[in-house]
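[step 3/7] inverse_fold.run input=structure_tokens len=209
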């Protein structure tokens, strides 16, 4: 099973979905650690309660973004990471770090990329009058929310939705999508090659059937 480390900054509900999926010994990845850049991240307690090793690498403890990312890299190496999953990790990573882990690091974004990169995706989807919204798992490259797409899941925007109801619907889709995408990467059925996603069989990597 591929040794996988999850990077978080907050609540960690996607992290928990990955840990729960990997609890099944038939799942091709095992979650060997969780790293947070915030000491107060709620997900740290959740991970610990599930018996997963946790590390805090706070930005404030380092003189620069580069030094912070070097420390995160060292924690990943110490944990023996083969795959890195960003799950609500809210800090941009430096180019050197991203290049080192390129093809082995994936992220979940709460929108159907390439629409709605960045923050506040649910309110922006509502403001734009979208009738469909969703989430994307992609390989991480140096440009924010821009790496090759692995899998997407769409949800409807319902009349009367507000940010709370829409984000909850998308989050439910995220919790199903992220474990599926990690499985494909861990099995080697999906890889990044020449800046694109390559699929090695005909399994359709979206969650809408
Ligand atoms: C998730 O919705 C994730 O897609 C989003 O933050 C939330 C984290 O929730 N990520 C981003 O916005 C990345 N720019 P979680 O901590 O409960 O998984």
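[step 3/7] decode complete -> sequence:
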């Amino acid at each position: 099973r591929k040794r996988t480390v999850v990077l978080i900054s907050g609540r960690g509900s996607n992290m928990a979905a990955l840990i729960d999926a990997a609890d099944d010994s038939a799942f091709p990845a095992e979650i060997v650690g969780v790293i947070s850049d915030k000491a107060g991240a709620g997900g740290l307690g959740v991970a610990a309660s599930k018996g997963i090793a946790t590390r805090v690498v706070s930005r404030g403890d380092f003189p620069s973004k580069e030094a912070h990312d070097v420390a995160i890299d060292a924690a990943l190496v110490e944990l023996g990471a083969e795959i890195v999953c960003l799950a609500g990790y809210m800090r941009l990573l430096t180019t050197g770090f991203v290049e080192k882990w390129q093809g082995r690091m994936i992220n979940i974004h709460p929108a159907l990329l390439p629409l709605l990169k960045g923050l506040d995706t649910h309110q922006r989807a509502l403001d734009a009058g979208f009738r469909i919204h969703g989430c994307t798992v992609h390989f991480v490259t140096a440009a924010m929310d821009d790496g090759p797409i692995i899998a997407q899941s769409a949800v409807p925007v319902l009349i009367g939705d507000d940010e709370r109801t829409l984000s909850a619907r998308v989050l439910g889709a995220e919790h199903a999508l992220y474990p599926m995408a990690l499985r494909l990467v861990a099995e080697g059925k999906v890889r990044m090659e020449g800046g694109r996603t390559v699929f090695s069989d005909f399994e359709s990597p979206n969650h809408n059937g």
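[step 4/7] annotate
Residues 141 and 147 are 5 Å apart (CA to CA).
The pocket of glycinamide ribonucleotide is lined by residues 8, 10-14, 43, 87-88, 108-110, 171, 174 (CB under 6 Å).
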